[in-house]
Amino acid sequence: MPWLTHLRSAPISARLGLAIILAYALVAVFAPWLAPFSEADAVGAQYAPWAAPHYLGTDALGRDVMSRMIWGARNTVGIALVTTALAFLLGTTAGLMAATLGGLADTLSSRLVDVLMAVPSLIFALLILTLTGTSVIALILVIAVLDSTRVFRLSRAVAQGILTMDYIEVARMRGEGLFWLIRREVLPNATAPLIAEFGLRFCFVLLFISALSFLGLGLQPPTADWGSMVRESAKLIAFANFSTWQTATFGLAPLLPAGAIAVLTVAVNLVVDWLLHLSSGLKD
Amino acid sequence: MAPILKVLLRRLALGALTLLIVSAMIFLAVELLPGDIATETLGQSATPESLAALREKLGLNQPAALRYLAWVAGALQGDFGMSLANQRPIGELIAVRAFNTFFLAGHAAVIAVPLSLFLGLLAALYRDSILDKLISTTTLATISFPEYFVAYILILLFAVQLGWFPSLASVEPGMTLAARLHATFLPALTMTLIVTAHMMRMTRAAIVNLLALPYIEMARLKGMRRWRVIAVHALPNALAPIVNVIALNLAYLIVGVVLVEVVFVYPGLGQLLVDSVAKRDFPVVQAACLIFAATYILLNLAADLIAILSNPRLLHPR
Predict the structure, then answer these.
(1) Crossing angle (nearest 10°) for helices A187-214 and A226-233
(2) Phi and psi (nearest 5°) for B264?
(3) Which of A115, A129, A203 faces B21 most closely, judged by CB atoms?
(4) What are A155-158's contacts with CB under 8 Å, separation 24+?
(5) B110: how many CB neighbours lie within 10 A of its CB?
(6) Is A163 buried (19+), middle (13-18) or exposed (0-12) by CB count in 10 A?
(7) What's the CA gap between B163 and B144, in Å, rounded?
(8) B91-148 pLDDT, tens digit each
């Protein structure tokens, strides 16, 4: 990994971003051991104050908020990762193929992507989710397909730049096949922009899924998920009062899960900024 | 034909084609359902006779292409058919909602556009100063925050703690403009914070690019003030990219409005769309999607047309 050697010279912002991402990943992986209670069961009184054993209180059904935050890391981030990976698989495959094949296949797929991108993805997703109903599978598939259009655009553009190189000409004259060309010549040279794009896409997908969950159309209860937690605790904010610590926590109830999303997106953006800076070859 | 006319006409035709394809996709999406609107309305236990009667009444017996044409023709006159949920004409339902949504988006735009232009100019003028860094850091943060995070922080500050503005943006017909502006201030501010970042960065970039050019250096060597160099010499040449970014962000406002409306329980088109998705009220979802999509496509078209019109190479062909 060439980036590991760069890590030592990484700016403080990128290190901070990496540390935050690592912390989120650890929480997501070890959620069952970290969470003191289950994500779906009522374990205490409704709206319990922030005190042991419910360090972040309980919600309207008496579920432990801290446990739900921890499980939410696994559910929300996990689904966002799967969706982004799927979108990348679809987008890069189609994009690299379109660029390498050229001709009619390229024109047709590009026009299709143009049409899909002509409409905001939230509007498209709402239309499709009306038809399919809300389920995790539908959610992942719909967002992955809509998001793969952006990946298609980028990977196609990057591949077209690479395909004009002499070594591609040589490989073609050697009689190498389509997949060999893509895998051995194009892909290795396209990794840097694609990895940066993966970070940005992940942020977008995370915000997108959380937004749908916030609208009540994403992950369905009782699954713990940050977007739906914001939705469930939103009413509490009206009772917030900063005169005492206990009443102030009402205001924090929707901000906690929303903040968890915000901090993760900022962290990923910090790392992506650094990666883009590295791959662009700019020196300070 | 003058080259500019050719380019303009081509872009207009492309826009019309996009609108046509997208509207067809929105209409035909419902055809993918197992069954149709009649089976969805009457449910599992419907008799074949009642299904046939409803299909006859809704005109579902005709081929899809004919129904699509009828739907588009109706939509152009504001007639979107009947809602499945409450059997009322969608046209009436949507008219007030659409007005509210465009009012909110307009309110946000009126604050956001001058603000981001001013901040962008300021950042370009004093670039690499603390002010510049502060502006770009805060804008980066607001880009990565979810809309509702920004919204709830504003509610907590300005509605719950200070009590200056209502946390629920309820508006009704017959409100005075001042009362309406007061009620929609917090949602408009939320959207402003979200779009300002992008617009401001593009303004800054457009002007910073120009500042390296010789004619700007000449103006400065003549002893002109910095503000005057920017306002008189740099800004006119930077207008094209800036106007383009403004149009793109207005298009984004149309989408961002959905989430913000739900947070503030604002009776707009976005709220109606979300409610109808949950109720699986297809005709309303189709109508709302068509309005959002058409606005988005038209604003993007406007951005491209402005970019074409402000290109001197096309305006003054040799």
Answers:
(1) 20
(2) -95, 10
(3) A115
(4) A155/A91, A155/A92, A155/A95, A155/A96, A155/A99, A155/A190, A155/A194, A156/A95, A156/A96, A156/A98, A156/A99, A156/A106, A156/A110, A158/A190, A158/A193, A158/A194
(5) 13
(6) middle
(7) 27
(8) 888 888 888 888 888 888 889 888 888 888 888 878 777 887 787 777 777 777 888 8
Taking only the tens place, the pLDDT of each residue in A222-232 is: 788 888 888 88
In the block, residue with structure tokens 């207009």: B12
Residue B69 Cα distances to A196, B58, B72, B79, angstroms: 44, 14, 5, 13
Record: contact A210-B146, CB cut-off 8 A: yes
Q: Which of B103, B101, B82 is nearest to B92 (CA)?
A: B82
The two structure tokens encoding residue A196: 């940066």
Which residue in A195, A210, A194 sits closest to A263, CA to CA? A210
- The model carries a pTM of 0.84
Of all residues in chain B, the percent with pLDDT exceeding 70 is: 92
Question: Euclidean distance between the first and final Cα of chain A, in Å?
Answer: 22
For A280, the 3-state DSSP assignment is coil
Phi, psi of A42 (to 5 degrees): -75, 125
Identify which of B211, B205, B227 has the alpha carbon closest to the alpha carbon of residue B136.
Answer: B205
3-class state of residue B89 by DSSP: strand
pLDDT at residue B270 above 60? yes
Q: Which two tokens stand for residue B79?
A: 């007639």
Phi, psi of A53 (to 5 degrees): -85, -5
Q: Render pLDDT for B279-315 as a digit per residue (tens, 0 to 9).
A: 878 888 888 888 888 888 888 888 888 877 776 666 6
Rg (CA), chain A: 22
Please report which helix (H) or strand (E) contains residue A81, including its range: helix A78-101
Closest partner CB to A262 (pick from B32, B145, B254): B145
Closest chain A C-alpha to B53 CA, distance in angstroms: 24
- Is there a contact between B260 and B147 (Cβ–Cβ < 8 Å)? yes
- CB-nearest partner of B32 from A126, A131, A258: A131
Name the residue with tokens 């094209």.
Answer: B240
Reduce the DSSP state of residue B217 to 3 states and report it.
Answer: helix
Q: How far apart are CA A158 and CA B77, in angstroms?
A: 45
Residue A83's pLDDT band, with cuts at 50, 70 and 90, is very high
- Residue B167 and residue A238: Cβ atoms within 8 Å? yes
